[in-house]
Amino acid sequence: MSLASLVAAMALAQAAPGAPSPDLTAVPPPPPMAAPVARILIASDSTAANYGASAYPQMGWGMVLKCSLDPRVEVVNLARGGRSTKTFIEEGLWAGLLEKIKPGDTVMIAFGHNDADRVKIVRFTDPQGAYTDNLTRFVADVRAAGGQPVLMTPIAKHVFLDDQVQETHGAYAVAVRDVAKATNTPLIDLDADMMGAQQARGEAGSRGFYLIYTPRDGVARYPNGISDTTHINEGGARLAAALVAARLAFLKLPVSAYVRPASTGDQPILGGPRCLGR
Length: 278
Hints:
The protein is α/β, with parallel strands linked by helices. It is built from seven helices and nine strands, in the order αββααβαβββαβαββα. Helix content is 32%, strand content 14%.
C-alpha cells in the first residue's frame, strides 16, 4: 500500500463498529445579550457546533470560544453537524445566518470535512468548483450585509504516520487559502495550527483531544470505546478555540480588541462549556 493510500485509509477509519453516532440534536441558543460590544457569528459543521450534555465529552470549539473573549462579546454559534457548504445553503441555514447579521458583526466560516464526503454524496463539493464558489459567495454575502468575513481551514484530524501528523484536508485547505487571498479576506489556518499543536505533543499526547477512547477509559457514552479521529472532546474544543482566538487577535480586526486568548497549552477540563473564573 502506498503512503497516500495508507493515510487515506487511516483518515476514513474514524469510528469503531457499533459506536454511537455523534449527537447532533439542536441545542437551544442562549438568549441574546442586551448590549454586546461585538458579535461573532459562526457558520460551520460538527467540529464547531453546540452540543447538549448528553453528547459529552464531544464538544465543538464554538462552544468555548467565549472563554477567550471579553464577556461582553456575543457568540452566535450557527454551526450544524453534518453540513457542507452545499447543504448549509440548500437547507436555508446560510439564509438564516444572513438574516441575523448586523453591520459590524464578524462571521467565521469553517467548512471542509463534509464537503469532502463522497459516501453521503449530497454533501460533496469539488474543492476547485462548488466549494470555492460557495466560499466566495459567503464572503460576498457577509460583506454586502455589512459584516466582516473570516475564512477558516477545517480543523485537522488526528492522523499520524511514522510519528508525523498527516495533512488530510489537501485540496480543501488549499482552496480556503486561495479564496482568502483572491478576496482579500482574513484567514485563520486552523488546519495548520492544530497540526502543529498535535506534532508538538506527539501521536499519543495529542490523541486525548479527540474522541479516541478504549473501554478502560470508562467514558459512559462510549462503553465499548471509540476511535473517531475527526471529532473533538472538551480538551480538543478548548485547544482549538484558543488557537482560533490567538489568530483572531493577530488579525487586528475591530473584534480583535475584545479577544483575551486562553492558553494554547493543556487547559483544565470542567465537564462542559463553562469558562474558568466565570
